[in-house]
């Protein structure tokens, strides 16, 4: 099994009325429930946009420095995501397709690197 990130950028989503958003929520929760029943759902969340940004943090002289910006220079930002644990790319594509149809906006699929190899500094090796 491998974990995959299924995500969409907020800019890919056209404006919606509150009723349309509620309908998309019902449709997407139906897919999430199917993922749970199939035992592949790990975690998901959405409704992210520019208003949900908390801060920017960077390292300076080994210490975290928190600011209100600047943020990455981009017009796109994460709008929502789901993490699934499935056997292969085809299964990840299947679930991403289900979400794309339920929400009627594009989804992007990323495979997380496998964590089965030890880190170079792992004391257990």
TrEMBL record:
- Which segments constitute the YCII-related domain? 19-98
Q: Which domain of life is it from?
A: Bacteria
Q: Which family does it belong to?
A: Belongs to the YciI family.
Q: What is this protein called?
A: YCII-related domain protein
């Amino acid at each position: 099994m491998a974990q995959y990130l299924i995500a969409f950028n907020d800019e890919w989503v056209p404006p919606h009325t509150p009723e349309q958003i509620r309908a998309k929520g019902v449709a997407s929760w139906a897919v999430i429930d199917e993922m749970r029943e199939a035992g592949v759902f790990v975690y998901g969340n959405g409704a992210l946009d520019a208003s949900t940004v908390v801060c920017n943090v960077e390292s300076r002289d080994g210490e975290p420095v928190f600011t209100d910006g600047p943020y990455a220079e981009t017009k796109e930002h994460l709008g929502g995501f789901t993490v699934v644990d499935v056997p292969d790319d085809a299964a990840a594509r299947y679930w991403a397709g289900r979400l794309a149809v339920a929400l009627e906006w594009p989804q992007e699929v990323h495979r997380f690197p496998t964590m089965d190899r030890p880190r170079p500094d792992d004391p257990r090796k």
